[in-house]
Amino acid sequence: MKYFFLSDGWVTGRVWEFGGLWNEAVRQRRPHICRLNLSITEQGEVLWLYQVEESVLMVEVKPEGELRQAIGQVVLKRLITAEQVIEHLCAV
Predict the structure, then answer these.
(1) CA distances from 59 to 14, 62, 92 (A)
(2) How far apart are CA 92 and CA 47, in angstroms?
(3) Each residue of 54-73: pLDDT tens digit?
(4) pLDDT of 87 above 80
(5) Widest CA span of the chain, in angstroms?
(6) Number of Cβ within a 10 Å radius of residue 62
(7) CA–CA dist 11, 24 (Å, integer)
(8) 53: CB partners within 8 A, 6+ apart
(9) Whole-number Å distance between alpha carbons of 82 and 40
(10) Closest CA to 56 of 36, 38, 29
């Protein structure tokens, strides 16, 4: 599994795997992306921990609601391992 932290109020969008965009028709399922019941607060901002399956390379994230027009979207290219999550949680 891989992980990433995502700010409260942001949602996931498109997902990339090794061959390009995740193809639900070929895989016959959506990618496994799960918000875990674990968050940290950094500089007054709540960051939730998400878990994704190993085959996911990149995840598009974007703010939900009114902020969406001002910011657009961001693609997360550096997903982290469980060990990196633990290191980050211990450092906070």
Answers:
(1) 6, 10, 24
(2) 12
(3) 999 999 998 887 655 555 67
(4) yes
(5) 42
(6) 16
(7) 19
(8) 1, 2, 31, 32
(9) 15
(10) 29
Q: Which amino acid is at 16?
A: W
Q: DSSP of 56-92, one letter per residue?
A: --EEEEEE-TTHHHHH--EEE---B-HHHHHHHHHH-
In sequence order, the 6+-apart residues with CB closer than 8 A to the CB of 59 are 4, 12, 13, 14, 15, 16, 33, 52, 75, 76, 79
Bridge partners, residue 46, by sequence: 41
Instruction: Provide the whole-model pTM.
Output: 0.85
Looking up tokens 């878990």 gives 51
Radius of gyration (C-alpha) of the chain in whole angstroms: 14
